[in-house]
Amino acid sequence: MIMAVMVPRETVTEHRLDALEQKVDEGFARIDKKLDEAFARIDERFKDVDRRFGEVNERFGDVDRRFGEVNERLNESNERFNRLEDRMKGLEDNFYAMNRTLVTSAVVAVTALVGASVL
């Protein structure tokens, strides 16, 4: 006599679904782990970029300071040129005054010579 033992279909399907659920859970766990590792690498790279931008900001601060020093020196030079210009104007005024005096003296001398030669 041969007897067949049959397992209810629901039990077989339950075992298959449990196995499938376990595989899906393991797959998602692997993906979550890979994503966590990838995001950790990205976070490290962003930290490196932030550090580099900090260095660039420091460099720009140094450049700003240097431009400030150059600006101060240019302002000092500008003040010196303004003082020189004022002195040159004073010399120019003196030159014109001396020129008028010289021309007047020449006219007086010529007049005196002409007047002396007439007499």
Briefly, what is this?
By secondary structure, this protein is mainly alpha-helical.
Please explain how this structure is put together:
The chain is mostly helical and 119 residues long. It has a domain at 15-86. It has one helix at residues 9-118. The longest helix has 110 residues, at 9-118.
Sheet with the most strands, sense and barrel status:
none
Q: What string gives the helices and strands in order?
A: H
Share of helical residues: over 70%
Number of strands: 0
Helix- and strand-based class? Answer: mainly alpha
What gross morphology would you assign? rod-shaped
Mean pLDDT value: 88
Roughly how many Å apart are the termini? 180 Å
Uncertain runs: none
Per DSSP, the total helix count is 1
Radius of gyration: 51 Å
Strand content: under 5%
